[in-house]
Design goal:
Elements: H1 5-21, H2 24-53, H3 56-76, H4 80-87, H5 95-119, H6 121-124, H7 134-159, H8 164-183, H9 185-188, H10 191-216, H11 228-232, H12 235-262, H13 265-298, H14 303-334, H15 338-353, H16 355-370, H17 374-399, H18 401-431
Helix pairs in contact: 2-8, 2-13, 3-5, 3-7, 3-10, 3-12, 3-13, 4-7, 4-12, 5-7, 7-10, 8-10, 12-13, 12-17, 13-14, 13-15, 13-16, 14-15, 14-16, 14-18, 15-18, 16-17, 16-18, 17-18
Length: 452
């Protein structure tokens, strides 16, 4: 009996997929995008449970507390995540010292940042004064330090082209937080949401440090270390991107704090759930851009080719995701309760549409980071932050949480138009070329040195 051609085509398609995943750009992007999907589903389940088990006011307080931790962790990272991606591929024998030095300095910085934040709660976030309780304060400080390292370790995995460990670590965190948010509701009240989130960070971080990182970086052992010689080589690049990262993520962290202090805890709960769902979508272009950044750090001469591939990957994944949120956004919010759907559906649709300009801006930032153009990275990030925060604040006073979404999409779109005009001429020149030599058209940056 003759064999059916269908199995043959199936094998071919599997081989084609395997061939694509053998390319580090697609492999890293695949695992990071899968990580976004898994973490998004688990995060969605976590907040659905939180909304069902806790009152809107408790969800509002907990979400603002988590937003504060995320903000402080970003503040404390000092840009070392970008330094790891850019310089770890060429660090050689200094790799372990580079990783541990970045972790140690960032961890100590986050400790100080959390203590300062607690000391000044009356000034910058009176709504969170409840965490002045001794047990809550200690928990807040510890979780801030852990989350700082939780973020940095992902960048080390990306730099080593081992993004699968990002997926494994974050999936572990998602599962733990779901189990914990149910277990803690009986005796921790509003702090149960935050405690479950913090416990998940602790468990996943321990696994990442003591199990996964030693596999990605052969011979690695976590130890408090500060190697001045190693850190000095990346500090300028890291600090420039640190400033840019603080500016870029300022709306992500400050929007919930603005909402809770101006509109109240309950209204912030409606905003935060829509904002959290949208951030799951924003994470897709972010992780694809990280993969592009990592590959550019290995092979800068193929940057333009990989940029075009990254743009195509953005469109392939994001367009269907946007359509789903536009059509089913209100239905998703119903899982949290009717009040969440009524108050956040329009906001969620606006945020979903903003992912296209967000992806353009992320791509441009990665290209500039590979070329070590930190001034360009800072300028783009500052433009987005200043426009989003100022317009969001003004519009929020007039139309409530919808104003934050309108300010966000306006800022991202305006900046995306400008960077598209800057980026597209080089990509057009490349697209008409028949081989990789076209990448030489772009200005050469030469062989990089950690001290450059």
């Amino acid at each position: 009996m003759a064999h059916s051609p269908i199995p043959s085509r199936t094998v071919t398609s599997k081989e084609g997929l395997k061939s694509l995943l053998s390319l580090p750009l697609y492999s890293n992007a695949f695992y990071l995008t899968l990580d976004v999907a898994v973490v998004s589903l688990l995060g969605f389940a976590f907040w659905v449970l939180a909304a069902k088990l806790y009152t809107p006011a408790q969800v509002g307080l907990a979400s603002a507390t988590i937003a504060a931790v995320i903000f402080l962790a970003r503040l404390s990272g000092l840009g070392f995540g970008y330094g790891l991606i850019r310089f770890l591929p060429s660090a050689g024998r200094k790799s372990n010292a580079l990783i541990n030095s970045c972790f140690t300095i960032a961890g100590l910085t986050s400790l100080v940042a959390a203590l300062v934040f607690l000391a000044g709660l009356n000034l910058w976030s009176p709504a969170l004064l409840y965490i002045r309780h001794p047990i809550f304060s200690i928990s807040f400080v510890l979780v801030t330090v852990m989350y700082t390292l939780f973020l940095l370790i992902d960048r080390a995995f990306i730099a080593k082209r081992s993004a699968r460990y990002v997926l494994f670590k974050n999936a572990t965190a998602g599962l733990v937080q779901i189990a914990a948010v149910i277990a803690f509701v009986a005796f921790l009240s509003a702090f149960g949401i935050f405690s479950s989130w913090g416990l998940a960070i602790l468990v996943a971080l321990a696994i990442g440090l003591f199990q996964f990182l030693s596999r990605a970086q052969r011979g690695y052992t976590p130890a408090p270390t500060v190697s001045k010689e190693t850190v000095k080589g990346v500090i300028r690049f890291s600090l420039g991107n640190y400033i840019a990262e603080l500016l870029w993520f300022a709306p992500f962290m400050l929007f919930p704090l603005m909402a809770i202090n101006i509109l109240g805890a309950e209204i912030n709960a409606y905003f935060y759930i829509a904002w959290a769902i949208a951030q799951m979508l924003f994470a897709i272009p972010m992780v694809i851009s990280y993969s592009l950044f990592a590959e550019g750090s290995y092979k800068e001469d193929l940057l333009q080719s990989n940029t075009i591939k990254a743009i195509k990957l953005h469109l392939l994944i994001l367009v269907p995701a946007i359509v789903v949120l536009l059509v089913l956004g209100d239905k998703l919010l119903l899982f949290f309760g009717r009040s969440y759907a009524e108050s956040g559906a329009t906001l969620l649709r606006i945020l979903a549409l903003s992912v296209i300009p967000v992806s353009i801006n992320y791509t441009y930032l990665s290209v500039m980071r590979v070329k070590k153009n930190t001034k360009g990275v800072i300028l783009v990030s500052a433009s987005v932050a200043s426009l989003a925060l100022s317009s969001g604040y003004i519009l929020m006073a007039k139309v409530g949480i919808l104003g934050l979404g309108l300010g966000w999409i306006a800022a991202q779109t305006l900046v995306a138009i400008i960077v598209s005009l800057l980026l597209s001429p080089r990509l057009r020149r490349f697209s008409f070329s028949n081989n990789e030599a076209a990448s030489k058209i772009a200005p050469k940056t030469g062989q990089y040195s950690p001290r450059s």
